C-alpha cells in the first residue's frame, strides 16, 4: 500500500573542493503517513519520525541499492521502533510495545541497530547505545561514525501541528571525504555544531524542501548536486505475501483453519491494510506443499 508523499526527496551533493559529501532529505509525507498508520502521538511519534528519516539517510549514504532496516529498542525492552527502507525509496515503519507500555523510553539500555540485506541474502548488522541526551539524531550520528569510521555530522527533525499530524520532517548528513583540508574541516564542523545541531527552524520553514536545506548547510560553499531520489511511504504487502506467510505454518495449523470454515481476516502491521483468506485458498496451500 502506498500514498502520495508530497514530493519527498533526498538530494546528494559534493563540495567542489572534494572535502565533503552532503545529503539532505525532506520526509514530510513519508513520516506523516507512517505515523498516521501507526496511530502515534507525543514523544514516541517524534522518535519514530526521526528514525524513519534516519533510516532513509543511512540507506542513501551507505547502501542506496540495498534494503536497510533501522531498529530502536527502548529502555527495558518495552517498546520497539522499526524503519524499513527499500532501494526504490519506498519506506514503511512499525511500532510495537508490550502490553501496558504507552510509548518508548530512550536512555539507560536503549539501543539502535541497523541491518542491511546484501545481494547474496546475507545480513550485515551494527549496533550502538542510545545516549541519555540527544535522542535518535545523536544515536544516528554515532552509528554513522562507528560504521564508516569517518567524521559524520547528522541531524533530523519531526515537527507536528496542533492536531498531532506531521507538519514537516527531514534531515541531513555531512561526511568528511579523504584528503580534506584540515582548516576547512574545522570551520565546517564548528559551523554545523553551532547552527545545525538543531534543524527545527529550517524544517519548520513554510517552504521547507531538501534543496533549500542543502543550500543552507552549504551556504557560501561551492558544490555540485550529484543525484536526486524520491522517497515515499510504501508497504510491499499484498494478498500473495499474506498467503506466502501462511504457507510457512505447520500443515496441522493450516488444516485447523480450514476445518473452522471461516474466512481469515489478516491486517498488515505496517500499513494496516486488511486481507481476507478463504478456506479454498488455504486448501490451495496444502496442495502446493
Question: Summarize this, please?
Answer:
The chain is an alpha+beta fold. Helices cover 35% and strands 30% of the residues. The strands form 3 sheets. Strands 7-6-3-4-5-11 form a 6-stranded mixed β-sheet, covered by helices on one side.
Q: What attributes does this structure have?
A:
6-stranded mixed β-sheet, 289 residues, CBS domain Like, 2 domains, Hsp33 domain, 9 helices, alpha+beta, 35% helix, single chain, 5-stranded antiparallel β-sheet
Note the topology.
Elements: E1 9-15, E2 20-26, H1 28-38, H2 42-62, E3 67-73, E4 79-85, E5 90-97, E6 111-117, E7 123-129, H3 135-148, E8 152-160, E9 166-176, H4 182-195, H5 200-203, H6 210-217, E10 223-230, E11 232-233, H7 239-246, H8 251-260, E12 264-267, E13 274-277, H9 279-288
Parallel strand pairs: 5-11
Antiparallel strand pairs: 1-2, 1-10, 2-9, 3-4, 3-6, 4-5, 6-7, 8-9, 12-13
Helix pairs in contact: 1-2, 2-3, 8-9
Nearest-integer average pLDDT: 91
SSE order, as H and E? Answer: EEHHEEEEEHEEHHHEEHHEEH
Contiguous helical run count: 9
CATH class of the largest domain, please?
Answer: Alpha Beta
Q: What percent of residues adopt helix (DSSP H or I)?
A: 25-40%
Which fold name fills CATH's third level, the topology of the largest domain?
Hsp33 domain
What is the 3D shape? elongated
Looking at CATH, the homologous superfamily of the largest domain is Hsp33 domain
Q: Largest sheet at a glance?
A: 6 strands, mixed
Structural class: alpha+beta
Residue ranges: pLDDT <50 for 5 or more in a row? none
Gyration radius from CA atoms, angstroms: 21 Å
Strand order of the largest sheet: 7-6-3-4-5-11
Count all strands and give the number: 13
Strand proportion, as a percent range, falls in: 25-35%
In total, how many domains does the architecture comprise? 2
CATH architecture of the largest domain: 3-Layer(bab) Sandwich
First-last Cα distance: 29 Å
Amino acid at each position: 500500500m502506498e500514498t502520495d508523499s508530497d514530493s519527498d526527496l533526498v538530494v546528494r551533493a559534493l563540495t567542489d573542493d572534494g572535502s565533503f559529501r552532503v545529503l539532505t532529505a525532506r520526509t514530510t509525507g513519508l513520516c506523516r503517513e507512517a505515523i498516521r498508520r501507526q496511530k502515534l502521538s507525543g514523544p514516541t511519534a517524534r522518535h519514530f519520525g526521526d528514525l524513519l528519516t534516519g533510516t532513509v539517510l543511512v540507506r542513501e549514504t551507505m547502501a542506496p541499492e540495498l534494503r536497510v532496516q533501522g531498529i530502536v529498542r527502548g529502555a527495558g525492552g518495552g517498546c520497539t521502533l522499526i524503519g524499513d527502507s527499500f532501494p526504490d525509496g519506498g519506506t514503511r515503519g512499525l511500532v510495537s510495545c508490550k502490553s501496558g507500555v504507552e510509548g518508548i523510553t530512550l536512555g539507560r539500555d536503549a539501543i539502535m541497530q541497523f541491518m542491511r540485506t546484501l545481494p547474496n541474502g546475507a545480513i550485515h548488522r551494527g549496533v550502538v547505545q542510545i545516549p541519555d541526551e540527544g535522542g535518535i539524531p545523536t544515536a544516528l550520528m554515532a552509528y554513522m561514525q562507528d560504521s564508516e569510521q569517518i567524521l559524520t555530522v547528522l541531524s533530523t527533525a519531526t515537527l507536528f501541528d496542533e492536531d498531532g499530524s506531521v507538519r514537516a520532517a527531514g534531515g541531513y548528513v555531512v561526511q568528511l571525504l579523504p584528503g580534506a583540508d584540515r582548516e576547512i574541516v574545522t570551520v565546517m564542523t564548528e559551523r554545523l555544531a553551532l547552527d545545525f545541531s538543531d534543524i527545527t527552524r529550517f524544517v519548520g520553514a513554510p517552504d521547507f524542501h531538501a534543496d533549500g536545506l542543502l543550500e543552507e548547510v552549504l551556504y557560501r560553499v561551492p558544490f555540485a548536486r550529484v543525484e536526486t531520489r524520491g522517497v515515499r511511504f510504501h508497504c510491499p504487502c499484498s494478498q500473495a505475501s499474506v498467503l506466502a506467510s501462511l504457507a510457512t505454518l505447520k500443515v496441522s495449523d493450516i488444516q485447523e483453519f480450514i476445518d473452522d470454515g471461516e474466512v481469515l481476516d489478516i491486517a498488515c502491521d505496517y500499513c494496516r491494510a486488511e486481507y481476507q483468506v478463504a478456506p479454498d485458498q488455504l486448501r490451495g496451500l496444502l496442495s502446493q506443499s
